[in-house]
Amino acid sequence: MKITTWNINSVRLRMPLVAQFLKEKDPDVLCLQETKCRDAEFPMKDLSALGYKHAAINGQKGYHGVAIVSKEPLRLLEKRDFCEKGDARHISVEVEGAGGPITLHNFYVPAGGDEPDVSINPKFAHKLNFLDEMKEWGANGAAKGRVMLVGDLNIAPLEHDVWSHKALLKVVSHTPIEVEKLTNVCRAGNWIDAMRHFVPAEEKLFTWWSYRAADWAASNRGRRLDHILVSEALGGALGKLEVLTQARGWERPSDHVPVTIELSE
DNA sequence: ATGGTCGGAGCCCGA
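The joint structure predicted for all components is written out below.
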């Protein structure tokens, strides 16, 4: 089974790229973040025509929004309102894997604004609170059984998850406090970093490149903001990883690229 | 030395 996570930055605008991706890579399940539209505006007809007839959608007007689409049936489990702000940042489903049902969580963690200081930046405080709640949620049983957590976590935790560790120490997404919070999330749920299972920690690994660079590929100032975590029970099922870096060079791209994992069971 | 660019909404905000 192939599962892809992709921050699409407006699913309506990017639907031609989604179609191109699905035709080329043929994943079983696609998890999207930043869909930026209400559920009624989600391009379900286009996706259905591509063979993705099953969907679980948690959208809102203009901001955030997550969705899971699939070739095989999905069972909606929850749309959890972390931090109780009414943001559409989580959805979970059950999907049938070769070795039994899998619980799949799709997250869009708050970006956190520009200033890494909770006393002057409420968006940063929201991000840290969101991560604390994720930690509690994982510690209280969410990571038990066959569970996968994917999405844009808006944190690049390791030194080689950013183009320059030193230059980004005070830049939101790579500050020590955020890295510590995400590390605590992983510890509390015994989550396995599936991407780093395949790519050694000493190797650069990015999923996002800013729109502000004149030439994203030449400067290659990327960050690994998108993640795939699996519970211990799925650790042995990890088959293959593909980060589709070239998608950043497509016509009118998202600033994030699709990340696909294969599960053997 | 510190902009630079997107998307969606509606002439700014969030990323």
